[in-house]
Amino acid sequence: MIDPNNKDELKDAPLLRGIPEHDPFVVPNGFFDRFPQTVQARIAAQQPKAWSDRIAALLRPRVVVGGLAFLAVLATTWTLWPSIAPAGTVALGAAVEPEEVLSTDLDDELLFAALASDQPLLDAVDLALSDTELQAYLENEELPLDLLIEEL
Amino acid sequence: MSDLSDTELLTLFRKEDTKHYAFNLLVRQYQRRLYTFVRRMVTDHDEAQDVLQNTFIKAWTGLDSFRADSQLYSWLYRIAHNECLNHLRKMKRGLFVNNDIVIEQLSTTLDSSEHFSGDEIQKKLQKAVMRLPDKQRAVFNMKYFDGMKYEAMSGVTGTSVGALKSSYHIAVKKIEGWLTIDQTK
Questions:
Q1: Which CATH class is domain B1-116?
Q2: Cβ pair B27:A15 closer than 8 A
Q3: Does B24 touch chain A (CB under 8 A)?
């Protein structure tokens, strides 16, 4: 164990120089026969799974059934969603936007609902005209000023 | 079966169909020598097994990029050396764990281990070696037990030859001193 060349460096260490060459550490029987397989097993455990293995894992019965059940719940929820809304709720006023009232044939019920909403119709309009421009526009269009004044 | 050369092993390893076969051969070729070094560093067989496994796992990962600018054994030895130091560092991690406690733990392992067949002087030597700082212990083990040349040790530890010689001489002096004190008790 001790290299003969090494003994020169131990000339001042007689006790160290005199210790018999013997490896005192005992190795369990068969350890070196089994060890390579142990290492290979750990390496195999660390390898990323092949695509075929991943697909096979996805196709397991439990996974398929679970996935189908989830899709069924999702589809049911999606289908029934409009009917889930509470009945009897009058939401016409909140549901109707001013643009919808203007763009469709006027329905009395819809019109009253729109007018009853808190949001004034004119809030949707932003003319960005100066006073002079506005006056010129109104005169040109011959709009009934008295009615407009009432609205404002 | 005779050992394959580094070149032969690497050639086999770099082919996909013989990769595992080559690595198996590599492990069989170097496991005993590396185990001996690791065991002297960590004392306990089970811990030595863990460290050795980690060493070869790292070798598996890094072998593709091994540049053959050093011998394969030196490269493996270097990995084992670093893994031992990491392991010993982890043992010392903790709020109330200091070096003395770790030494005491290793010493107890030695006393109670059925896997130690040395006589009294050998046990005293091992306990004295345990008292060295980890890196110095590695240097002492490589030189005294494995007879490694300083140039090779430099490749393993990344330390200069001069620093290694100095470290070894200091280690020898310390151990000789402890053995002498033990002898006079």
A1: mainly alpha
A2: no
A3: yes
